[in-house]
Amino acid sequence: MEFGSRRTYTTMPSNLRSSRLLLISLLLLLFYSTTLLRRPTTPNLVSPPPCDLFSGRWVYTPETPKPLYDETCPFHRNAWNCLKNRRENMGVINSWRWVPDGCGLSRIDPTRFLGRMRNKNIGFVGDSLNENFVVSLLCILRVADPSAVKWKKKKAWRGAYFPKFNVTVAYHRSVLLAKYNREANEDGVKGAYRVDVDVPADEWINVTSFYDVLVFNSGHWWGYDKFPKETPLVFYRKGKPIHPPLDILQGFEVVLQHMVSYIQRQVPAKTLKLWRLQSPRHFYGGDWNQNGSCLLDKPLDKDQLDLWFDPRNNGVNKEARRINQIIKSELQTTEIRLLDLTHLSEYRADAHPAIWLGKQDAVAIWGQDCMHWCLPGVPDTWVDILAELILSNSKTE
């Protein structure tokens, strides 16, 4: 009897079947975890952006602790000592606190700061707004070392030595940064000012290696109110007049190029180099020599700032932003860090000495001071920011 052909079946080994089941299970688990259970990235896993200390708002906080110093500080300049000169509203002026966007700003701790700066020196070079700045810093640091003494070595205009910490802080007055002097006409009458755009001024050319931190500025003297057309600035390079002649802002740009180049070449690499941008003026109704005034009792609102300071409005306070544009352009490829105190200071039209100048006839002679700042006052906030930048830099060294 013939039977049909038999089919044979092979069975899968049990170990291979188990492996396949395990692989399928893993694939299903992977699909489940990457689709059904997917979650957005949590914010705390993302590094926060660096804090911008220069952008923020002023907040009125009457409970703010009193300033760290008063009218008895021996480093005061009389015209800025608004407590001694009995300027109105000093309590209110110092009740406004700068709050940066997205982060906090602590008040400087003078003892901690000087401790971190032990055996180091801080120098300021520039015009009287840097002097305004350094007076605030000197008075604040004296809280930590009352034995501090005045220091005017190395052609410093103003300064102090803090023996407890072996720290020197000083200001070198150099309003144009470049060397300049008054020239006499053929008849012996003094006329134009010669500016050697490629030669740093004697007041700071040989002292930069002494400092571990340097804060530069220039800008307030680059205007026709300081150098009118009757006694202009005449610019020289390599000892010869520049042709065609430069106007005052063109001259500033060329001077800045040369001074920045010198700083990059000659100032030691270890030195922290900062450039403070313009401190804004707040003359209302005219310039300083045209009965301009700043008798305001509160900071400006944000929507008022462009009206006061935008160069397109051609107001009397327009030079700060215009000068800043030149500085920012020149420094953008350098290691010199910007200390951009302009924006936060633009608000504070209420915080100048104004008519409280310490001398009875000062206003009649010079007009109101709507350029410098009362001390204590806004420059104390500058000091808080400067200290934060210096100490942050020291952590990365």
Automatic annotation (TrEMBL):
One Pfam short name: PC-Esterase
Domain Trichome birefringence-like C-terminal: 105-388
UniProt topology in membrane: Single-pass membrane protein
Segments forming domain Trichome birefringence-like N-terminal: 50-103
The protein's name: Trichome birefringence-like N-terminal domain-containing protein
Lineage: Eukaryota, Viridiplantae, Streptophyta, Embryophyta, Tracheophyta
This protein's UniProt keywords: Membrane, Signal-anchor, Transmembrane, Transmembrane helix
Keyword Transmembrane helix: yes
InterPro entries: TBL, TBL_C, TBL_N
Chief location: membrane
Subcellular location, record wording: Membrane
Family from the record: Belongs to the PC-esterase family. TBL subfamily.
